């Protein structure tokens, strides 16, 4: 079983555990709230690697109205997203194979989804994202750094999931090379279930 299929199988099996852990996870909610404060009502939003719709749900709870599309490769996650955010449009697709017209969206979220993409896949996706954003469109991007790539057990899954740990410096360069100006970059320590510490990276960027 390949890294993607094994990872998606783990997410399918543990979608409820993931939803329970992260739907009210304060550090992530705070960062998304900060980002939402940059947005205007009525914006067209693309939530890539949407999982159970945690980001989209928070958008709707903000009191602002958005047009939301969400994509995830886990069928069970998509089912949860549709339940959690009935007003959203969620589909089970591979984010590596998406295709939209240029300048289709005002906002794109990549909340901990590039952690499952290798360097080439990540570069390709960020180039697409830049094309899909309108001028002054906003990007929310989060990922981890600080470990070696590979399969891991997690706090929500005994089944192993494959993670890539991208360099923040490398990601910043890719964004700058693709007309995405950094608004803010922050790092937070994340305590793993085995006692180790991973660095979560959060980037807000704007298309120019």
- Taking strands numbered 1, 2, ... along the chain, how are they ordered across the largest sheet? 3-2-1-4-5-9-8
Global structural class? alpha/beta
SS element count, helices: 7
Which band does the percent of strand residues land in? 25-35%
Secondary-structure element string:
HHHEHEHEEHEEEHEE
Distance between the termini: 41 Å
Sheet with the most strands, sense and barrel status: 7 strands, mixed
Number of domains: 1
Shape: globular
| CATH architecture descriptor | 3-Layer(aba) Sandwich
Q: What is CATH's topology name?
A: Rossmann fold
In the CATH scheme, the class would be Alpha Beta
CATH superfamily: Vaccinia Virus protein VP39
Radius of gyration: 16 Å
Q: Which segments are poorly predicted (pLDDT under 50) over 5 or more consecutive residues?
A: none
Q: What's the overall average pLDDT, rounded?
A: 95
Helix content: 25-40%
The tally of beta strands, per DSSP, is 9
Keywords: Methyltransferase, Transferase, Ubiquinone
Pfam family, one: Methyltransf_25
GO molecular function, one term: methyltransferase activity
Protein name: Methylase involved in ubiquinone/menaquinone biosynthesis
């Amino acid at each position: 079983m390949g890294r993607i299929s094994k990872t998606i199988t783990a997410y399918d099996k543990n979608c409820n555990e993931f939803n329970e852990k992260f739907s009210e996870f304060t550090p992530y909610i705070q960062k998304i709230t900060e980002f939402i404060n940059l947005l205007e009502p009525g914006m067209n939003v693309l939530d890539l690697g949407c999982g159970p719709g945690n980001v989209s749900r928070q958008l709707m709870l903000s009191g602002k109205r958005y047009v939301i599309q969400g994509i995830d490769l886990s069928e069970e996650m998509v089912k949860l997203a549709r339940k959690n955010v009935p007003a959203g449009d969620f589909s089970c697709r591979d984010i590596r194979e998406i295709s939209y017209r240029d300048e289709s969206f005002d906002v794109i979220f990549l909340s901990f989804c590039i952690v499952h993409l290798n360097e080439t896949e990540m570069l390709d996706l960020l180039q697409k994202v830049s094309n899909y954003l309108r001028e002054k469109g906003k990007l929310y991007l989060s990922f981890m750094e600080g470990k070696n790539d590979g399969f891991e057990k997690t706090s929500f899954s005994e089944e192993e999931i494959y993670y890539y740990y991208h360099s923040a410096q490398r990601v910043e360069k890719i964004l700058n090379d693709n007309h995405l100006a950094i608004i803010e970059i922050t790092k937070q320590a994340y305590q793993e279930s085995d006692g180790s510490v991973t660095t979560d990276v959060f980037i807000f960027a704007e298309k120019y």
